[in-house]
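Why run this: before we spend reagent on co-expression, it is cheaper to look at a predicted model of the complex and decide which construct boundaries make sense. The entries below are exactly what would go into the expression plan.
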Amino acid sequence: MTAIRVRDLRKRYGQVEALRGISFEIEEGEVFGLLGPNGAGKTTTVEILEGYRRRDGGSVDVLGHDPQRAERAFRERIGVVLQHSEMWPNLTVAETLRVFAGYYRRSRDVGETIALVGLGHKRDDRIKTLSGGQKRRLDLALALVGDPELVFLDEPTTGFDPQARRAAWEMVRGLRSLGKTILLTTHYLDEAQQLADRLAVLRDGEIVTIGTPGELVDASGPTEIRYRLDGELTLLRTDEPTRALHELTGRALTEGRELRDLEVRRASLEDVYLELLREEEAPE
Amino acid sequence: MRLFLHQLRADQLVFWRNRESAIFVYLFPVLLFLLLGTVYGGTYEGRPVVDYLVASLIAYGVANTAFGGLAIMLVVRRELGILKRIRSTPLPAATYVAAALASIVVVFLLQTATILLLGKLVYDAAWPDDWLSVALAVGVGAAAFCALGLAAAALIRSSEGAAAVVNVIILPMTFLSGGFGPTRDFPDFLQRIADVLPLTYFVELIVGIFVHGEALWAKPGTIAVLVLWGLIGAAIAVRRFRWEPRLG
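The model came back. C-alpha coordinates follow.
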Protein backbone atom coordinates (compact mmCIF):
# COMPACT_ATOMS: atom_id res chain seq x y z
CA MET A 1 0.00 0.00 0.00
CA THR A 2 1.11 3.52 -0.73
CA ALA A 3 1.08 5.83 2.28
CA ILE A 4 1.99 9.07 0.52
CA ARG A 5 1.59 9.97 -3.13
CA VAL A 6 2.83 13.35 -4.34
CA ARG A 7 2.50 14.42 -7.97
CA ASP A 8 3.89 17.59 -9.49
CA LEU A 9 3.66 19.47 -6.18
CA ARG A 10 4.18 23.19 -6.49
CA LYS A 11 4.44 25.99 -3.97
CA ARG A 12 5.54 29.59 -4.21
CA TYR A 13 6.07 32.26 -1.60
CA GLY A 14 5.66 35.56 -3.43
CA GLN A 15 8.33 35.59 -6.13
CA VAL A 16 10.14 32.56 -4.78
CA GLU A 17 9.28 29.18 -6.23
CA ALA A 18 9.83 26.95 -3.21
CA LEU A 19 8.69 23.72 -4.91
CA ARG A 20 8.87 23.37 -8.68
CA GLY A 21 6.79 20.31 -9.29
CA ILE A 22 8.09 17.40 -7.24
CA SER A 23 6.74 13.84 -7.35
CA PHE A 24 7.40 10.84 -5.15
CA GLU A 25 5.66 7.97 -3.43
CA ILE A 26 6.21 6.43 -0.02
CA GLU A 27 5.13 2.89 0.75
CA GLU A 28 3.60 1.83 4.05
CA GLY A 29 6.25 0.83 6.56
CA GLU A 30 8.99 2.60 4.67
CA VAL A 31 11.46 5.11 6.08
CA PHE A 32 11.78 7.80 3.44
CA GLY A 33 14.38 10.55 3.69
CA LEU A 34 14.19 14.01 2.16
CA LEU A 35 17.75 15.16 1.95
CA GLY A 36 18.98 18.56 0.92
CA PRO A 37 20.65 21.75 2.06
CA ASN A 38 18.80 24.44 3.99
CA GLY A 39 16.29 26.23 1.81
CA ALA A 40 15.89 23.35 -0.65
CA GLY A 41 12.19 22.95 0.16
CA LYS A 42 12.23 20.07 2.65
CA THR A 43 10.19 21.75 5.37
CA THR A 44 7.77 23.23 2.84
CA THR A 45 7.15 19.74 1.46
CA VAL A 46 6.65 18.20 4.90
CA GLU A 47 4.38 21.01 6.08
CA ILE A 48 2.17 20.61 3.03
CA LEU A 49 1.89 16.89 3.75
CA GLU A 50 1.12 17.59 7.43
CA GLY A 51 -1.66 19.97 6.47
CA TYR A 52 -0.01 23.21 7.65
CA ARG A 53 0.34 24.80 4.22
CA ARG A 54 -1.75 24.90 1.09
CA ARG A 55 -0.19 23.82 -2.15
CA ASP A 56 -0.31 25.96 -5.29
CA GLY A 57 -0.39 23.04 -7.71
CA GLY A 58 -0.21 19.29 -8.11
CA SER A 59 -1.90 16.55 -6.11
CA VAL A 60 -1.17 15.12 -2.69
CA ASP A 61 -2.60 12.00 -1.10
CA VAL A 62 -1.61 11.12 2.45
CA LEU A 63 -3.22 7.96 3.87
CA GLY A 64 -6.13 8.52 1.50
CA HIS A 65 -6.67 12.11 2.67
CA ASP A 66 -6.00 15.49 1.16
CA PRO A 67 -4.03 17.09 4.00
CA GLN A 68 -5.07 20.66 3.27
CA ARG A 69 -8.64 19.81 4.19
CA ALA A 70 -7.27 19.17 7.70
CA GLU A 71 -9.85 16.56 8.58
CA ARG A 72 -9.87 15.24 12.10
CA ALA A 73 -9.79 11.67 10.86
CA PHE A 74 -6.54 12.50 9.08
CA ARG A 75 -4.97 14.06 12.14
CA GLU A 76 -5.90 10.99 14.20
CA ARG A 77 -3.52 8.99 12.00
CA ILE A 78 -0.41 11.16 11.79
CA GLY A 79 2.28 12.11 14.28
CA VAL A 80 4.33 15.27 13.83
CA VAL A 81 7.71 16.37 15.12
CA LEU A 82 8.22 19.99 14.11
CA GLN A 83 11.59 21.54 13.54
CA HIS A 84 11.02 24.01 16.38
CA SER A 85 8.46 23.65 19.10
CA GLU A 86 8.42 23.87 22.86
CA MET A 87 5.85 22.73 25.38
CA TRP A 88 4.40 24.25 28.55
CA PRO A 89 7.53 24.70 30.68
CA ASN A 90 5.83 24.02 34.01
CA LEU A 91 4.04 20.78 33.23
CA THR A 92 5.78 17.47 33.76
CA VAL A 93 6.58 15.04 30.98
CA ALA A 94 3.75 12.71 32.02
CA GLU A 95 1.21 15.54 32.37
CA THR A 96 2.03 16.87 28.92
CA LEU A 97 1.65 13.44 27.38
CA ARG A 98 -1.68 12.92 29.13
CA VAL A 99 -2.93 16.23 27.67
CA PHE A 100 -1.95 15.13 24.18
CA ALA A 101 -3.22 11.58 24.63
CA GLY A 102 -6.63 13.07 25.39
CA TYR A 103 -6.80 14.60 21.91
CA TYR A 104 -6.97 11.19 20.23
CA ARG A 105 -9.75 8.65 20.13
CA ARG A 106 -7.24 5.87 20.41
CA SER A 107 -3.99 6.61 22.20
CA ARG A 108 -0.98 4.71 23.42
CA ASP A 109 -0.32 4.16 27.08
CA VAL A 110 1.41 7.27 28.43
CA GLY A 111 3.93 5.45 30.62
CA GLU A 112 4.85 3.06 27.84
CA THR A 113 5.32 5.93 25.37
CA ILE A 114 7.60 7.77 27.81
CA ALA A 115 9.65 4.61 28.23
CA LEU A 116 9.79 4.10 24.46
CA VAL A 117 11.64 7.40 23.97
CA GLY A 118 13.86 6.79 26.99
CA LEU A 119 12.46 9.47 29.29
CA GLY A 120 11.26 7.09 32.01
CA HIS A 121 13.54 8.65 34.62
CA LYS A 122 12.18 12.11 33.74
CA ARG A 123 8.47 11.38 33.69
CA ASP A 124 7.62 13.52 36.73
CA ASP A 125 10.09 16.31 36.00
CA ARG A 126 8.98 19.65 34.63
CA ILE A 127 9.74 20.29 31.00
CA LYS A 128 11.83 23.36 31.74
CA THR A 129 14.37 21.11 33.45
CA LEU A 130 14.91 18.93 30.35
CA SER A 131 17.98 19.24 28.14
CA GLY A 132 17.65 20.02 24.44
CA GLY A 133 17.94 16.36 23.47
CA GLN A 134 15.40 15.33 26.09
CA LYS A 135 12.97 17.94 24.76
CA ARG A 136 13.30 16.41 21.29
CA ARG A 137 12.52 13.02 22.78
CA LEU A 138 9.46 14.53 24.37
CA ASP A 139 8.47 15.89 20.94
CA LEU A 140 8.80 12.38 19.59
CA ALA A 141 6.75 10.95 22.45
CA LEU A 142 4.03 13.54 21.75
CA ALA A 143 4.06 12.51 18.10
CA LEU A 144 3.66 8.85 19.06
CA VAL A 145 1.09 9.07 21.84
CA GLY A 146 -1.79 9.10 19.35
CA ASP A 147 -0.48 5.80 17.95
CA PRO A 148 -0.09 7.19 14.41
CA GLU A 149 0.49 5.14 11.28
CA LEU A 150 2.64 7.84 9.74
CA VAL A 151 5.25 9.92 11.51
CA PHE A 152 6.81 13.13 10.17
CA LEU A 153 10.23 14.00 11.54
CA ASP A 154 11.48 17.39 10.41
CA GLU A 155 15.22 17.53 11.06
CA PRO A 156 14.98 15.41 14.18
CA THR A 157 18.65 15.65 15.19
CA THR A 158 19.71 19.15 14.18
CA GLY A 159 21.83 20.56 16.96
CA PHE A 160 22.46 17.18 18.62
CA ASP A 161 25.85 16.02 19.79
CA PRO A 162 27.03 12.76 18.17
CA GLN A 163 25.91 10.60 21.08
CA ALA A 164 22.41 12.08 21.16
CA ARG A 165 22.21 11.63 17.41
CA ARG A 166 23.05 7.92 17.71
CA ALA A 167 20.36 7.57 20.36
CA ALA A 168 17.82 9.30 18.12
CA TRP A 169 18.74 6.99 15.26
CA GLU A 170 18.10 3.99 17.46
CA MET A 171 14.69 5.40 18.28
CA VAL A 172 13.81 5.88 14.62
CA ARG A 173 14.86 2.30 13.91
CA GLY A 174 12.63 1.29 16.80
CA LEU A 175 9.69 3.08 15.18
CA ARG A 176 10.40 1.34 11.94
CA SER A 177 10.22 -2.01 13.66
CA LEU A 178 6.81 -0.99 15.03
CA GLY A 179 5.71 -0.82 11.39
CA LYS A 180 5.30 2.96 11.22
CA THR A 181 5.79 4.79 7.96
CA ILE A 182 8.30 7.56 8.49
CA LEU A 183 9.06 10.64 6.46
CA LEU A 184 12.16 12.35 7.71
CA THR A 185 14.00 15.40 6.49
CA THR A 186 17.63 16.02 7.17
CA HIS A 187 20.59 17.92 5.85
CA TYR A 188 22.93 15.29 7.24
CA LEU A 189 23.93 12.75 4.68
CA ASP A 190 25.04 10.13 7.20
CA GLU A 191 21.65 10.35 8.87
CA ALA A 192 19.81 9.72 5.60
CA GLN A 193 22.15 6.86 4.81
CA GLN A 194 21.75 5.31 8.26
CA LEU A 195 17.99 5.54 8.47
CA ALA A 196 16.29 5.82 5.11
CA ASP A 197 15.18 2.88 3.01
CA ARG A 198 14.90 5.30 0.13
CA LEU A 199 15.77 8.92 -0.17
CA ALA A 200 15.16 11.86 -2.43
CA VAL A 201 17.70 14.64 -2.80
CA LEU A 202 16.01 18.01 -2.99
CA ARG A 203 17.75 21.00 -4.48
CA ASP A 204 16.17 24.36 -5.18
CA GLY A 205 12.65 22.99 -5.00
CA GLU A 206 13.31 20.07 -7.32
CA ILE A 207 14.09 16.42 -6.75
CA VAL A 208 17.43 15.78 -8.41
CA THR A 209 17.58 12.10 -7.63
CA ILE A 210 15.60 9.45 -5.83
CA GLY A 211 16.32 5.86 -4.84
CA THR A 212 17.91 3.64 -2.20
CA PRO A 213 21.28 4.84 -0.91
CA GLY A 214 22.87 1.96 -2.87
CA GLU A 215 21.16 2.89 -6.12
CA LEU A 216 22.33 6.47 -5.80
CA VAL A 217 25.92 5.29 -5.54
CA ASP A 218 25.50 2.81 -8.42
CA ALA A 219 24.21 5.55 -10.65
CA SER A 220 27.26 7.61 -9.97
CA GLY A 221 29.53 6.14 -12.66
CA PRO A 222 32.86 4.36 -12.85
CA THR A 223 35.18 2.98 -10.21
CA GLU A 224 38.49 4.73 -9.76
CA ILE A 225 41.80 2.87 -9.54
CA ARG A 226 44.83 4.87 -8.47
CA TYR A 227 48.40 3.76 -8.22
CA ARG A 228 51.92 5.12 -8.46
CA LEU A 229 54.32 3.66 -10.97
CA ASP A 230 57.88 4.92 -11.24
CA GLY A 231 56.88 7.79 -8.99
CA GLU A 232 54.10 8.87 -11.32
CA LEU A 233 50.50 8.88 -10.05
CA THR A 234 48.08 7.25 -12.45
CA LEU A 235 44.32 7.38 -12.30
CA LEU A 236 42.20 4.86 -14.13
CA ARG A 237 38.40 5.05 -14.43
CA THR A 238 36.59 1.87 -15.35
CA ASP A 239 33.19 0.25 -15.38
CA GLU A 240 34.86 -3.17 -15.12
CA PRO A 241 37.03 -2.86 -12.04
CA THR A 242 37.65 -6.60 -11.66
CA ARG A 243 39.10 -7.04 -15.12
CA ALA A 244 41.05 -3.79 -15.00
CA LEU A 245 42.56 -4.61 -11.64
CA HIS A 246 43.44 -8.17 -12.72
CA GLU A 247 45.23 -6.96 -15.82
CA LEU A 248 47.01 -4.23 -13.92
CA THR A 249 48.29 -6.37 -11.08
CA GLY A 250 49.07 -9.28 -13.45
CA ARG A 251 51.29 -7.04 -15.52
CA ALA A 252 53.01 -5.62 -12.48
CA LEU A 253 53.71 -9.11 -11.14
CA THR A 254 55.23 -10.41 -14.38
CA GLU A 255 57.37 -7.31 -14.60
CA GLY A 256 58.25 -7.70 -10.93
CA ARG A 257 57.26 -4.18 -10.04
CA GLU A 258 55.32 -2.76 -7.15
CA LEU A 259 52.22 -0.60 -7.64
CA ARG A 260 52.70 1.88 -4.86
CA ASP A 261 49.71 3.53 -3.17
CA LEU A 262 47.30 1.21 -4.96
CA GLU A 263 43.74 2.19 -4.19
CA VAL A 264 40.38 1.09 -5.58
CA ARG A 265 37.64 3.48 -4.81
CA ARG A 266 33.90 3.62 -5.40
CA ALA A 267 32.23 6.99 -5.18
CA SER A 268 30.76 7.26 -1.68
CA LEU A 269 27.23 8.56 -1.17
CA GLU A 270 28.88 11.71 0.07
CA ASP A 271 30.68 12.15 -3.28
CA VAL A 272 27.39 11.64 -5.07
CA TYR A 273 25.62 14.12 -2.85
CA LEU A 274 28.28 16.79 -3.12
CA GLU A 275 28.36 16.29 -6.88
CA LEU A 276 24.59 16.79 -7.02
CA LEU A 277 24.80 19.96 -4.99
CA ARG A 278 27.74 21.28 -6.99
CA GLU A 279 25.58 21.32 -10.10
CA GLU A 280 23.43 23.82 -8.26
CA GLU A 281 26.25 26.33 -8.06
CA ALA A 282 27.24 25.95 -11.69
CA PRO A 283 25.91 28.73 -13.94
CA GLU A 284 23.01 27.76 -16.18
CA MET B 1 -17.66 18.63 24.78
CA ARG B 2 -15.35 15.96 26.19
CA LEU B 3 -12.43 17.52 24.32
CA PHE B 4 -13.44 21.00 25.48
CA LEU B 5 -13.43 19.92 29.14
CA HIS B 6 -10.18 18.05 28.64
CA GLN B 7 -8.51 21.14 27.20
CA LEU B 8 -10.06 23.43 29.84
CA ARG B 9 -8.62 21.22 32.56
CA ALA B 10 -5.23 21.29 30.83
CA ASP B 11 -5.35 25.09 30.50
CA GLN B 12 -6.22 25.46 34.17
CA LEU B 13 -3.33 23.19 35.14
CA VAL B 14 -0.95 25.20 32.96
CA PHE B 15 -2.24 28.49 34.39
CA TRP B 16 -1.98 27.69 38.10
CA ARG B 17 1.27 25.77 37.73
CA ASN B 18 2.98 28.90 36.43
CA ARG B 19 3.59 31.07 39.47
CA GLU B 20 4.11 34.25 37.46
CA SER B 21 0.78 33.99 35.70
CA ALA B 22 -1.05 33.02 38.86
CA ILE B 23 0.37 36.00 40.75
CA PHE B 24 0.29 38.58 37.99
CA VAL B 25 -3.00 37.67 36.38
CA TYR B 26 -5.09 36.41 39.29
CA LEU B 27 -3.62 37.88 42.44
CA PHE B 28 -2.49 41.37 41.43
CA PRO B 29 -5.95 43.00 41.20
CA VAL B 30 -6.88 41.33 44.49
CA LEU B 31 -3.76 42.72 46.20
CA LEU B 32 -4.42 46.15 44.73
CA PHE B 33 -7.93 45.98 46.14
CA LEU B 34 -6.61 45.17 49.63
CA LEU B 35 -4.04 47.95 49.37
CA LEU B 36 -6.52 50.60 48.26
CA GLY B 37 -9.11 49.35 50.75
CA THR B 38 -6.62 49.84 53.56
CA VAL B 39 -5.73 53.37 52.45
CA TYR B 40 -9.14 54.72 51.47
CA GLY B 41 -12.26 54.48 53.62
CA GLY B 42 -15.27 56.53 54.51
CA THR B 43 -17.70 57.84 51.96
CA TYR B 44 -17.58 59.63 48.64
CA GLU B 45 -20.65 61.60 47.58
CA GLY B 46 -22.61 59.86 50.26
CA ARG B 47 -21.68 56.33 49.17
CA PRO B 48 -19.17 54.01 50.87
CA VAL B 49 -15.78 54.22 49.15
CA VAL B 50 -15.37 50.47 49.41
CA ASP B 51 -18.26 50.03 46.96
CA TYR B 52 -16.34 52.14 44.46
CA LEU B 53 -13.24 50.09 45.12
CA VAL B 54 -15.00 46.77 44.55
CA ALA B 55 -16.41 48.02 41.26
CA SER B 56 -13.12 49.64 40.18
CA LEU B 57 -10.99 46.61 40.88
CA ILE B 58 -13.39 44.30 39.08
CA ALA B 59 -13.01 46.68 36.15
CA TYR B 60 -9.24 46.62 36.48
CA GLY B 61 -9.50 42.85 36.70
CA VAL B 62 -11.36 42.53 33.44
CA ALA B 63 -8.64 44.52 31.69
CA ASN B 64 -5.80 42.76 33.49
CA THR B 65 -7.11 39.22 33.24
CA ALA B 66 -9.61 38.78 30.42
CA PHE B 67 -7.69 41.13 28.14
CA GLY B 68 -4.05 41.15 29.25
CA GLY B 69 -3.77 37.66 30.68
CA LEU B 70 -5.37 36.10 27.64
CA ALA B 71 -3.27 38.08 25.16
CA ILE B 72 0.03 37.25 26.88
CA MET B 73 -0.89 33.58 27.27
CA LEU B 74 -1.74 33.17 23.59
CA VAL B 75 1.30 35.08 22.32
CA VAL B 76 3.66 33.05 24.50
CA ARG B 77 2.10 29.78 23.36
CA ARG B 78 2.20 30.85 19.74
CA GLU B 79 5.85 31.86 19.90
CA LEU B 80 6.83 28.65 21.69
CA GLY B 81 5.22 26.71 18.85
CA ILE B 82 2.61 25.13 21.13
CA LEU B 83 -0.30 26.43 19.06
CA LYS B 84 1.24 25.14 15.85
CA ARG B 85 2.00 21.79 17.43
CA ILE B 86 -1.57 21.39 18.70
CA ARG B 87 -2.91 22.21 15.23
CA SER B 88 -1.62 18.88 13.94
CA THR B 89 -3.56 16.93 16.58
CA PRO B 90 -7.24 16.01 16.24
CA LEU B 91 -8.21 18.79 18.69
CA PRO B 92 -10.35 21.20 16.60
CA ALA B 93 -9.11 24.79 16.49
CA ALA B 94 -12.47 26.14 17.67
CA THR B 95 -12.41 23.84 20.69
CA TYR B 96 -8.93 24.98 21.55
CA VAL B 97 -9.85 28.68 21.39
CA ALA B 98 -13.09 28.10 23.31
CA ALA B 99 -11.21 26.31 26.09
CA ALA B 100 -8.55 29.03 26.28
CA LEU B 101 -11.27 31.69 26.62
CA ALA B 102 -13.20 29.65 29.16
CA SER B 103 -10.05 29.08 31.18
CA ILE B 104 -9.23 32.78 31.47
CA VAL B 105 -12.89 33.56 32.26
CA VAL B 106 -12.74 31.01 35.10
CA VAL B 107 -9.72 32.88 36.48
CA PHE B 108 -11.49 36.24 36.10
CA LEU B 109 -14.63 34.95 37.84
CA LEU B 110 -12.58 33.56 40.72
CA GLN B 111 -10.82 36.89 40.98
CA THR B 112 -14.13 38.78 40.99
CA ALA B 113 -15.53 36.45 43.63
CA THR B 114 -12.41 36.93 45.74
CA ILE B 115 -12.72 40.72 45.57
CA LEU B 116 -16.43 40.58 46.46
CA LEU B 117 -15.76 38.26 49.37
CA LEU B 118 -12.82 40.26 50.73
CA GLY B 119 -14.89 43.45 50.37
CA LYS B 120 -17.57 41.87 52.49
CA LEU B 121 -15.32 40.20 55.05
CA VAL B 122 -12.54 42.74 55.45
CA TYR B 123 -14.20 46.09 54.67
CA ASP B 124 -17.80 45.25 55.47
CA ALA B 125 -19.04 46.19 52.02
CA ALA B 126 -22.73 45.59 51.32
CA TRP B 127 -23.66 42.80 48.94
CA PRO B 128 -24.99 44.17 45.64
CA ASP B 129 -28.81 44.29 45.42
CA ASP B 130 -29.12 42.84 41.98
CA TRP B 131 -27.03 39.67 41.47
CA LEU B 132 -28.43 39.05 38.02
CA SER B 133 -27.19 42.42 36.82
CA VAL B 134 -23.79 41.77 38.39
CA ALA B 135 -23.52 38.42 36.64
CA LEU B 136 -24.63 39.80 33.27
CA ALA B 137 -22.39 42.85 33.48
CA VAL B 138 -19.39 40.72 34.40
CA GLY B 139 -20.30 38.36 31.54
CA VAL B 140 -20.59 41.13 28.93
CA GLY B 141 -17.37 42.70 30.16
CA ALA B 142 -15.50 39.40 30.11
CA ALA B 143 -16.72 38.61 26.59
CA ALA B 144 -15.81 42.04 25.20
CA PHE B 145 -12.36 42.10 26.80
CA CYS B 146 -11.62 38.49 25.81
CA ALA B 147 -12.36 39.43 22.21
CA LEU B 148 -10.02 42.42 22.55
CA GLY B 149 -7.44 40.11 24.14
CA LEU B 150 -7.62 37.82 21.10
CA ALA B 151 -7.14 40.85 18.86
CA ALA B 152 -4.13 41.98 20.90
CA ALA B 153 -2.64 38.48 20.71
CA ALA B 154 -3.05 38.63 16.94
CA LEU B 155 -1.29 42.00 16.71
CA ILE B 156 1.57 41.50 19.21
CA ARG B 157 4.64 40.16 17.48
CA SER B 158 6.87 38.68 20.17
CA SER B 159 6.45 37.11 23.56
CA GLU B 160 9.27 39.24 24.99
CA GLY B 161 7.29 42.38 24.26
CA ALA B 162 3.86 41.01 25.12
CA ALA B 163 3.78 41.92 28.82
CA ALA B 164 5.16 45.38 28.13
CA VAL B 165 2.68 46.12 25.34
CA VAL B 166 -0.22 44.83 27.38
CA ASN B 167 0.69 46.93 30.43
CA VAL B 168 1.20 50.04 28.33
CA ILE B 169 -2.41 49.54 27.26
CA ILE B 170 -3.94 48.44 30.57
CA LEU B 171 -2.53 50.91 33.08
CA PRO B 172 -3.29 54.19 31.28
CA MET B 173 -6.63 52.80 30.11
CA THR B 174 -7.67 51.91 33.66
CA PHE B 175 -6.51 55.31 34.91
CA LEU B 176 -8.33 57.25 32.20
CA SER B 177 -11.47 55.14 32.48
CA GLY B 178 -11.91 55.87 36.15
CA GLY B 179 -10.82 52.42 37.30
CA PHE B 180 -8.39 54.02 39.76
CA GLY B 181 -10.69 56.80 40.93
CA PRO B 182 -13.02 59.52 39.61
CA THR B 183 -11.99 61.32 36.41
CA ARG B 184 -14.32 64.29 36.70
CA ASP B 185 -11.48 66.72 37.39
CA PHE B 186 -9.29 65.40 34.55
CA PRO B 187 -8.44 67.88 31.76
CA ASP B 188 -10.92 67.92 28.94
CA PHE B 189 -8.71 66.21 26.35
CA LEU B 190 -8.08 63.26 28.68
CA GLN B 191 -11.80 62.88 29.17
CA ARG B 192 -12.27 62.90 25.38
CA ILE B 193 -9.76 60.04 25.12
CA ALA B 194 -11.57 58.21 27.91
CA ASP B 195 -14.81 58.58 25.97
CA VAL B 196 -13.64 56.09 23.35
CA LEU B 197 -12.01 53.55 25.69
CA PRO B 198 -14.00 50.35 26.25
CA LEU B 199 -13.09 50.20 29.92
CA THR B 200 -14.81 53.57 30.52
CA TYR B 201 -18.09 51.92 29.66
CA PHE B 202 -17.47 48.85 31.75
CA VAL B 203 -16.57 51.07 34.74
CA GLU B 204 -19.75 53.05 34.18
CA LEU B 205 -21.82 49.89 34.10
CA ILE B 206 -20.27 48.21 37.10
CA VAL B 207 -20.15 51.37 39.24
CA GLY B 208 -23.82 51.94 38.42
CA ILE B 209 -24.65 48.47 39.69
CA PHE B 210 -22.41 48.37 42.76
CA VAL B 211 -22.56 51.96 43.94
CA HIS B 212 -25.87 53.28 42.75
CA GLY B 213 -27.85 50.07 42.84
CA GLU B 214 -28.86 50.37 39.20
CA ALA B 215 -30.00 47.49 37.07
CA LEU B 216 -27.89 46.45 34.07
CA TRP B 217 -30.46 47.54 31.53
CA ALA B 218 -30.53 51.10 32.94
CA LYS B 219 -27.71 51.88 30.50
CA PRO B 220 -28.40 50.23 27.13
CA GLY B 221 -26.09 52.68 25.33
CA THR B 222 -23.19 51.68 27.55
CA ILE B 223 -23.78 48.01 26.87
CA ALA B 224 -23.97 48.72 23.14
CA VAL B 225 -20.54 50.41 23.16
CA LEU B 226 -19.02 47.43 25.02
CA VAL B 227 -20.57 44.99 22.57
CA LEU B 228 -19.30 47.08 19.66
CA TRP B 229 -15.76 46.99 21.05
CA GLY B 230 -16.08 43.24 21.48
CA LEU B 231 -17.14 42.87 17.86
CA ILE B 232 -14.23 45.01 16.68
CA GLY B 233 -11.87 42.83 18.70
CA ALA B 234 -13.39 39.63 17.32
CA ALA B 235 -13.17 40.95 13.75
CA ILE B 236 -9.46 41.79 14.13
CA ALA B 237 -8.82 38.40 15.73
CA VAL B 238 -10.58 36.50 12.95
CA ARG B 239 -8.63 38.37 10.28
CA ARG B 240 -5.22 38.48 11.89
CA PHE B 241 -4.87 35.59 14.35
CA ARG B 242 -2.05 33.21 13.47
CA TRP B 243 -1.15 29.81 14.87
CA GLU B 244 2.46 29.81 13.88
CA PRO B 245 5.39 31.58 15.52
CA ARG B 246 6.80 34.57 13.69
CA LEU B 247 10.24 33.13 13.17
CA GLY B 248 12.57 35.56 11.42
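The interface with chain A takes residues 3, 6-7, 10, 13-14, 17-18, 80-82, 84-92, 244-245, 247 of chain B (CB under 8 Å). The mean pLDDT of chain B is 92. Bring this page to Monday's planning discussion.
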